[in-house]
Amino acid sequence: QECSKKQKNDDTQSTSVDALSSNNGSEEKNEFDTLANAKILLSDCLACDSCMTVEEGARVFQQNQKEFFRILNLNKKCDTSKHKILAVSLCPQSLPYFAAKFNLSVNEAAKRLCGFLKSLGVHYVFDTTIAADFSILESQREFVQRYQRRNQEEHALPMFASACPGWIRYAERVLTNLVTSHICTAKSPQQIMGSLVKGYFAKQQNLSPDKIFHVVVAPCYDKKLEALREDFYTALYNSAEVDCVLTSGEIVQIMEQKDVSMKDVTEVAVDSLFDDLKEGDVVRHDGKRSDGYLEHIFKHAAKELFGVDVKEITYKALKNKDFQEVTLEKDGETVLRFAAAYGFRNIQNMVLKLKKGKFSYHFVEVLACPGGCLNGKGQAQTEDGKPDKALLAQMEEVYTAIPVRLPETNVHVQRMYQDWLEGMDSKKVQDTLHTTYSAVNQSTSSLDIKW
After folding, report:
1. What are the two backbone dihedrals, phi and then psi, of residue 294, each rounded to the nearest 5 degrees?
2. pLDDT in tens, 77-103
């Protein structure tokens, strides 16, 4: 069913589409023009209830291969003083797509993807797992603090995960402060990676943040919307944390248009944010199809609040496989009740219960895509836009086989808390790793979006 039953404004819609698809004929032609014609349609976005304005739509449209190649071409032609350093960050949920699609191991896929991007002119290729480390650690600490304040603050619990931009967009544009006040303030891995690249890495390389063009390869289109948020932009340097988001599928389009096979690409080790180190084998976090906020926060809270060391988590499926529950019992009492709610059907049911005051969960991992991040609409889709179930099954198998690394064991993260962020409880941690979410008034010039 359609999320919104509003009357469509045909004039507004046609004007918006014209604005998005217009092309300046005076643009200088370059060798990348043939690679830059793939368009991102608003229908590919998960954001619903007419929540994208014409201006936002135009800015999202700029986040495509054409913008990426515009910078590459700029570096080839202009004076070296005007060059941009191109840094690409790879999401962990994108790598299984490349591995499954090209029949590679996930480590081979990461190295060949790195080799392909560098053959185009990219300078650095990073893995965003370290950013997810920070995001999970900050989410864990915030949940424990909220739980301890639950009797003093009305909106302390439940806490909702903040990593999915489709969910965040829906909460801010459609739901009220009744919901947004419950959203965890920790930034998503994408935006923390933006802070790491434009903050920490730029400083290490003695670069101004605006000299770096930061691209993220992600599983879904909503990551493009997330990169446009005003709170993820530094006016001082006239620089966004993430300049461009390309989906996994868009990277494959570039390969196809360049007539390049992953099998023929030279393997190159993925870069590290630290000195001249290179990344080792790919690692992931707990969780079946995402960064595993539920599992990490549940285990941390059980230990911190109740002294219980949880080794394995048992999921209980409720109405459907995309709504599952996890509980902790102590002395015959249920002391923690977590849930995973994937897809808008489950999200809307969850919100309805919250509004009715019949909500029993302390934490909910909310993801807009049914099946989680691996099933993002920017990858694992057939040509008619439906999920490629066979490929998705392969991706899940690949993802599950990746070894798990606990965020607490990452020595680089612990060192950065002290050396870069001035301690775990500093103001810099709040400014760098957190943001705020609140209800946003709808624009009268918005487009109707179907999901």
Report:
1. -55, -50
2. 766 777 899 999 999 999 999 999 999
